[in-house]
Amino acid sequence: SSNEHKLNFKKSKEVCLSYIQDALLQKQWKRAAEFLTCYIESLEKDYSREHIGPSEMIWRIGTEILWHHSQSSMREFNCFMEQMKTLGVKRYLKVCLEHVFHLLCNGQIDEAYQNLSLAESWRFGEQTAIQDKEMKLIQAYRGLLDYCSWSKQKSILLEQGEDEFSDLAVEQEMHGYFRKAAVNLKEIIKIPGVWDIFVKCYVDLLEFYGDHNEARQVLNEYAYNSKFPANPNAHVYLCQFLKRQGESKKTLIAALKILHDIVPSHELMIDFNTMLQKSKKRKKRRLGLEVIFAALDYAGWKENAKAWSCLARQVKHIVISEKHLDWIKQEWNSRKDWWPAFHFSRYLAKSNWQENKSLSYEKALVAGILLGKDCKYFKYVSHQGCKAQLRRFRMLKKFVNRHNRVCLRI
């Protein structure tokens, strides 16, 4: 009967999809392709009986298979994507975008640009307004490729000699790419969202042509506008821009403080710590100690010799002066239960000594101050340094022994 046929078809379709899913999860691309072929054929046979719209599923699965299948080619992929574009106008621009990404991944920049231009001219009644966001993305990526062309022309111009006619032609072409890129990039970054690459490119264009005020306004808006999602990179770009522009320390410190609150492990924290340590204000020097301690809480910083050098220099200065020992105490109290195993084990002492003696010196100094002369890390490194007759390690051992009373107070 008709109902029985529909139930059997539905069941077989679900089973086929589960086989496809299993093959995808196991990265069995050939097997997945075979099942997808069966799935499509069964739909074609039954399409007259029941209306089913599986185009998005076929698009998603087919794209994944073709991208990974060992025997697929870019020609086949392009053909498949063109077919997917005709299956449903609601997904037309999304399919176009994905097609462009694959073309770019394969280095086919001209083809990608051509596809973006065709998509931008696409119109289909009310669907044009409904897909306004996708259209803005299409325009934004076209702007990104215009930026790449501008950047290429800029490099040619900078590399050329004093051929005035050649320079003029390249400069005119470069300015044409600038105008097209700037228009589209400016539009996309007005919409609340995460637009890192577009913002970076637009700011680069503005800086090259000396429009620093506009660049600053864009970065401030991107970092501080509450309508935009929280994004650490927005603050990084602003800090880097302020640094390039030679902004005052006060302005730069204020921006870096916000970045520290959001991402205490960012690499700019070393610059932040250095700036704070040079300050005459006690409050800022105290913050500097907090910043470097917080950075070293993260595994990615465990072997950062520059960070350990910053901390060693500051704690050494405090121990010698015996002022502000409470600063170190406050930072150490929340870390004394886990830092010894995390940073100062005998295993790490051996490893650091073999790989980087400068790092092991800085860490040993900090370990000796925080844990005293009986610390495993300090004992191993100072012993190896003295054994190797390295003067700075003998000085290190003497320093910690001489100030052991202060270290015990910490």
From TrEMBL:
Residues spanning the membrane: none
CC per GO annotation: RNA polymerase I transcription regulator complex
GO biological process, one term: transcription by RNA polymerase I
UniProt cross-references to Pfam families, sorted A to Z: TAF1_subA
InterPro entries for the chain: SL1/TIF-IB_Component, TAF1A
Domain of life: Eukaryota
UniProt-recorded name of the protein: TAF1A polymerase
Native organism taxonomy: Eukaryota, Metazoa, Chordata, Craniata, Vertebrata
